[in-house]
Specification:
The protein is an all-alpha fold. It has helices spanning 2-20, 24-43. α1 (2-20) runs antiparallel to α2 (24-43). The longest helix is centred in the C-terminal third of the chain and has 20 residues, at 24-43.
Length: 46
């Protein structure tokens, strides 16, 4: 699953940059996904 995210991340970031003309949205989306991922990891029981 991590490889899938690593493959799509540059494509999505570039698309958002081309769409908006700024890197701000790309960085905000990446930060939100990282925060959501961290929250999900904390919910996993051992």
């Amino acid at each position: 699953m991590a490889e899938f995210g690593a493959l799509l991340s540059p494509v999505v970031a570039g698309y958002l940059r081309d769409l908006t003309g700024s890197w701000t949205l790309s960085v905000m989306v990446t930060g939100a996904l990282l925060a959501a991922s961290a929250a999900l990891v904390l919910l996993v029981r051992r």
